[in-house]
Amino acid sequence: MKTVEVNGITMRYEIEGGGPWVTLSHSLSCDLSMWDELAAALAPKFSVLRYDTRGHGGSSAPVGPYSFDQLTADFNGLLDVLDIESTHFVGLSMGGMIAQHLALSTPQRADKLVIANSTSRIPPEAGPLWDERIAIVLAQGCAGVVEGTLARWFTPGFRAAHPAAVARIATQIRSTPTTGYVGCATAIRALDITARIGGIVAPTLVIVGADDPGTPPAMSEVIAATIPGARLEIIPSASHLSCIEQPEIFNRLVADFLKTDF
């Protein structure tokens, strides 16, 4: 396990392959291993950087709340330590939120963006849902949100047909530190940057699962319509973790986008 001290915390990261840099940023309640398949697909032609977001995996989980400015500063600090000037950035869910903030705050570091199963705004009516999840985790730890999260993240058919893949994600959810979940969930609950993302200049691919109830296609349609020149791809028969439910389609979309001019 590789770790560095960045922005007052320890961050875990992995680097594979060789070529232009591409970073993979995971969802809430997961870690860098969420990207195992995509990392293996990209490593023959890219230098693939994966890292554990503050509060997750092998990175520190200080008491929050956290903010996206802080999470973005964490990542920029990691690039500084690793002497990486710029990178393509693939983010899913929370990782897609970090992607948008990175492209706005330090556009010179964001080459191409892939924003998957994400949103640029949490609507007010969703606030109580996040409050409830935070309360459950404070009372029971992340074990208390495993079943509800899996129900949102995978279609019933995938859960029945791929129990091992689902169990692996369940372990990641259950293992997320309470402070990390609450810190990041608080940042997500406050997200509202739709009015700003029209300023993103990086070529952008937006991906969403057709059956995603957490960040439904309408949220990705807003992102794609607001970022100049962005392209939207909707993956059929996929819920929130589209990179795991439909890896062949997801990985092909990402690889083709990164290898070609947009």
The residue fraction in helices comes out at 40-55%
Overall outline: globular
How far apart are the termini?
A: 35 Å
Number of strands: 8
Give the low-pLDDT segments: none
Strand order across the biggest sheet?
1-2-4-3-5-6-7-8
Q: Which structural class fits the helix and strand makeup?
A: alpha/beta
How would you spell out the order of helices and strands? Answer: EEEHEHEHEHHHHHEHEHH
Multimer state: single chain
CATH class term = Alpha Beta
Description:
The protein has 262 residues and is of the alpha/beta class. It has a single domain (2-259), classed as 3-Layer(aba) Sandwich (Rossmann fold), CATH 3.40.50. It is 44% helix and 18% strand. The chain contains eleven helices and eight strands. The protein has helices at residues 36-42, 68-82, 94-105, 127-140, 146-153, 156-161, 163-175, 178-189, 217-226, 242-245, 247-259, and strands spanning 2-6, 9-17, 21-25, 47-51, 87-92, 110-116, 204-209, 231-235. Strands 1-2-4-3-5-6-7-8 form an eight-stranded mixed β-sheet, with helices on both faces. β7 (204-209), α9 and β8 form a beta-alpha-beta unit. The mean pLDDT is 97.
